Known about the structure:
The protein is mainly alpha-helical. It has one domain: Orthogonal Bundle (Arc Repressor Mutant, subunit A), CATH 1.10.10.10. The chain is built from 15 helices and 2 strands. The chain is globular, with a radius of gyration of 22 Å.
Amino acid sequence: MHIIGDFMQKNIKIKPAKGFKTITKCLEFFALNNEGTVEQVAKYINRDYTTALRIIKKLLPRYIQLERIESPVRKGRETKVYRITLHGLFCWMAVNKKVAEEKFEKIIEAHKERLLTFKKWEYFKDKGLADYIKNKFFQSILHYQIFTMGFFPAAYTLIYGRPMIPLANEKGVANAADFDILQLNRLMFPPNYVKRNFKNEWKNLISLYKAIEEDYELKRFKDMIIFERERELNEQLKAIQDWKQLLSQL
């Protein structure tokens, strides 16, 4: 965070919004926990209830979302339970990469149902692919930030409170992240091309693809991606053929 923040302040003359550290601390709570209440956030960031509530409202709905409302057992007010969005999680992890790397397994445990690669973390560890998957995850959230918010995206979105382009829904973000982490984009190129251009990764790639083929959920996800890509390419090929036929008759 400091590298990005310092560069932006010195070279682009941007001053972070007031309470920037408190906002990131709030996101940190949700990154490390599956969900939480305003009271829990207030305790974690060492602020009063009103301040915590104001911060959460500021982060709604792009970074934090209302998960559910619990009715009181006896008399009293309802309890609102919040959780971080995938967009918020990726933003926080990109800006706070050092902490995110140190707490990576805790983050996975808190959000393991949200990404297929998180759900399969222990499986990848058993296959000796933990370091490779972790590295690809942090590359993936960098790609996500660049494509959703432009240059220095994570700092931009936390400072200004909005991305530069609209976001996909949670499922779309999750599928895009899993696609990137699992290196399925490599399957769109001939094997010899990939082997020649990614020599240092080739052994890990083959081990990863073998692990995907041996797991039902991973293989199903991969097959879904390939099917969609094949359908798109077939439609493009048909369009070209139709144009060739039309142009030949002119």
